[in-house]
């Protein structure tokens, strides 16, 4: 139940075009209930399982398709994001010391750089959200399979999850690599100033409004923390509680409007 | 790494296929059979496909020999399908395996095409042929089952009780690659020609494979993983020989083109080709395809990629340099600044911080998940071996009456708790097996005590579960420790 709610929250928070690409966790859960309760001779167990597997496979297809499409998009864009930034810098240099002669105002420069930085950070965020998408769908699948086995006494989970592990949507290596690349580029271009560290300590509760990527990543991180807080069915292929070292940072976040907790 | 020629097939190329067959080509009229198939296929969604398969199971020999012969197979399929609703023995050894293969019967053809090497070189794909929507639904993520299927008869020497299976596998093995290639082309043709054909075909062949004991499941999965591993390793090698066509199905896109997984290297080659042709606006998909010279790449892949590329290029350009845009971006930034009114730099830094953390945690989580499943699989195999070994020792059939389901379930539970506690630290990666063995000795209380769950309330429930499983565990212990 908890996961279902968390998933739903994440779906609500997510970028609009992603809304229908997530796991239909609730529906599948209902189906599992249905299968376990209505064991009629008409619709035998194998058939029910076939139906269930069929639906799961459809979901997996959906994930694969969406994931690879996004991945392709990132591949196309990733160089451009950096090139854009470089171009900006070159433009700056030229106009500052070049034939133009007139030095652009500090404010303009800062705005330009801020814009570039924002683009890069958002690009980074999009990629991270895709990795999150992959992971949350995987988690959902694992949970659904576990429920299925538990309720019907089937042996579907283990072989099926092995198969899922091989799916393109779960193999996020490339996107992770792009993320790291982006991180490095951003760190190089925009080195973190010492003053900013101090500001962090003085920070009060940060309200995150809007519908942007930032909000989504915060939501995703919070969700992950909640999901892994220790479940009632702990101990069976469960992940340990999330260990966020910099817990101050994440706990100072608060999504606006506030989401009712479970 | 596999060499993959462009694996498209012309419908008219049926005669080409026949050249490569072992048995003679039965060139009955293709369209006629197609329609017949379609009619029969229509019945399938309503009844269980399993019925048809069982019926058709009786003819795996014929089917195997006629692998490349689409027409011949079709004939066989339908001659026996007339009585598909009749009662047939159904092996329920691997219901899950079976059904996971039953469903994705359409996509298996295109995926298979991509997954396995073809010896034919001069074919053009027919991805444009639209799969009817109902068949589209059959596309599945279990696309690896096809490689499974094809690899399986080859790799496993002795199959289950069915004579037909062994002969089927024997036939497949003897023809091996050639067969596989022909099969794919044939399957591809069927996809374009008639989806029902392919679906039936896959069902049939799949069904032969699935009538096996459960412990075959892992071997079955392995060929799949090797095929996939090859797919995934493709990004590293050079572009020329790189054919990264990923055999997953394009579920939501109507055309039957196999889903392509692009890599940065491939994209580089693409960009180079585009630039050579004078830019994204001037380049044509055909030209790019020719220039790239990547095996397995089709014009449809290039087309869609080019489209995306154009869109991506077009968008940033207007935003650069125009003062108007600068203003709006300024407003954007200030509006973005709803992060408690801090400076832009600070806001972005904060956002970056969160994103980095999320990514880090996701990676950790993913590794944990992989580890968990790996250990689960390993322990499951161990238990299976133990069990089969013990059964052999005991000899009598009555002792083998240990119902597989509960024993597996209980065997899983102690192992899971062990793995759970062994994976407490993300850094504790390689000690899984050792921990698992040592933890068999430990009491459930100890294991529970290790749980880092902060709330004591949570400890109650895990405890009860673990103690349940531990009681079963103790009953199983003598068996395990033998």
UniProtKB/TrEMBL annotation, chain A:
- Please state every residue range assigned to the domain named SPX: 1-162
Q: Which domain of life is it from?
A: Eukaryota
Recorded hits in CDD domains, A to Z, give: SPX_AtSPX1_like
What the entry lists under InterPro entries is as follows: SPX_dom (IPR004331), SPX_prot (IPR031142)
| One of the GO BP terms on file | cellular response to phosphate starvation
PANTHER family, per database record: SPX DOMAIN-CONTAINING PROTEIN 3
The protein depicted here goes by the name SPX domain-containing protein 3
Indicate the transmembrane segments per the record: none
* Biological source species: Hibiscus syriacus (Rose of Sharon)
């Amino acid at each position: 139940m908890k996961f279902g709610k968390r998933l739903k929250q994440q779906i609500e928070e997510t970028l609009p075009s992603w809304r229908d690409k997530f796991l239909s966790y609730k529906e599948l859960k209902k189906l599992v209930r249905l299968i376990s309760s209505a064991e009629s001779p008409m619709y035998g167990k194998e058939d029910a399982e076939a139906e269930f597997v069929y639906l799961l496979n459809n979901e997996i297809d959906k994930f694969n398709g969406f994931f690879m499409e996004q991945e392709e998009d990132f591949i196309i864009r990733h160089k451009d994001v950096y090139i854009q930034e470089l171009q900006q810098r070159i433009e700056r240099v030229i106009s500052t010391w070049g034939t133009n002669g007139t030095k652009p105002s500090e404010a303009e420069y800062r705005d330009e750089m801020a814009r570039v930085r924002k683009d890069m950070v958002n690009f980074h965020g999009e990629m991270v959200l895709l990795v999150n998408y992959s992971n949350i769908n995987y988690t959902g699948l694992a949970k659904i399979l576990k429920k299925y086995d538990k309720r019907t006494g089937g042996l579907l989970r283990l072989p099926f999850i092995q198969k899922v592990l091989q799916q393109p949507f779960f193999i996020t290596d490339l996107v992770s690599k792009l993320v790291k690349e982006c991180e490095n580029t951003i760190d190089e271009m925009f080195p973190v100033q010492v003053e900013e560290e101090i500001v962090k300590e003085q920070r009060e509760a940060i309200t995150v409004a809007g519908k942007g990527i930032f909000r989504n990543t915060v939501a995703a991180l919070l969700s992950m923390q909640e999901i892994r807080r220790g479940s009632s069915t702990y101990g069976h292929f469960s992940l340990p509680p999330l260990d966020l070292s910099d817990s101050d940072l994440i706990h100072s976040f608060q999504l606006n409007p506030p989401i009712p907790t479970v | 790494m596999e060499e993959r020629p462009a694996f498209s097939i012309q419908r008219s190329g049926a005669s080409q296929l026949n050249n490569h067959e072992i048995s003679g080509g039965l060139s009955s009229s293709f369209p006629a059979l197609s329609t017949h198939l379609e009619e029969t296929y229509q019945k399938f969604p309503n009844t269980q496909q399993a019925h048809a398969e069982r019926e058709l199971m009786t003819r795996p020999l014929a089917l195997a020999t006629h692998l490349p012969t689409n027409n011949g197979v079709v004939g066989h399929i339908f001659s026996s399908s007339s009585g598909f609703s009749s009662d047939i023995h159904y092996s329920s050894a691997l219901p899950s395996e079976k059904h996971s293969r039953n469903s994705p019967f359409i996509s298996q053809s295109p995926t298979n095409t991509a997954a396995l090497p073809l010896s034919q070189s001069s074919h053009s794909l027919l991805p444009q042929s639209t799969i009817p929507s109902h068949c589209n639904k059959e596309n599945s993520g279990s696309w690896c089952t096809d490689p499974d299927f094809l690899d399986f008869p080859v790799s496993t020497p002795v199959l289950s009780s069915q004579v037909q299976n062994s002969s089927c596998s024997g036939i497949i093995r003897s023809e091996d690659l050639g067969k596989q290639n022909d099969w794919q082309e044939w399957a591809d043709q069927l996809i374009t020609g008639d989806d029902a054909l392919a679906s039936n075909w896959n069902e049939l062949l799949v069904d032969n494979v699935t009538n096996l004991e459960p412990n075959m499941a892992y071997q079955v999965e392995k060929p799949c993983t090797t095929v996939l591993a090859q797919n995934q390793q493709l990004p590293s090698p050079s572009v020329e020989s790189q054919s990264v066509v990923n055999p997953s199905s394009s579920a939501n896109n109507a055309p039957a083109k196999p889903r392509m997984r692009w890599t940065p290297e491939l994209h580089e080659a693409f960009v180079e080709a585009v630039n050579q042709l004078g830019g994204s606006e001037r380049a044509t998909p055909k030209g790019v395809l020719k220039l790239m010279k990547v095996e397995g790449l089709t014009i449809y892949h290039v087309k869609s990629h080019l489209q995306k590329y154009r869109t991506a290029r077009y968008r940033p350009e207007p935003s650069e340099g125009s003062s108007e845009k600068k203003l709006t971006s300024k407003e954007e930034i200030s509006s973005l600044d709803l992060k408690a009114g801090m400076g832009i730099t600070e806001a972005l830094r904060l956002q970056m911080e969160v994103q980095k953390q999320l990514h880090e945690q996701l990676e950790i989580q993913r590794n944990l998940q992989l580890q968990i499943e790996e250990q689960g699989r390993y322990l499951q195999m161990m238990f299976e071996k133990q069990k089969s070994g013990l059964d052999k020792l005991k000899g009598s059939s009555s002792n083998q009456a240990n119902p597989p389901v509960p024993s597996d379930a209980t065997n899983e539970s102690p192992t899971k708790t062990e793995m759970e506690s062994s994976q407490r630290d993300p850094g504790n990666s390689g000690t899984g097996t050792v921990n698992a063995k040592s933890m068999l000795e430990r009491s459930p209380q100890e294991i529970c005590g290790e749980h880092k769950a902060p709330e004591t309330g949570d400890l109650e429930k895990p405890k009860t579960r673990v103690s349940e499983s531990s009681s079963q565990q103790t009953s199983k212990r003598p068996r395990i420790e033998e």
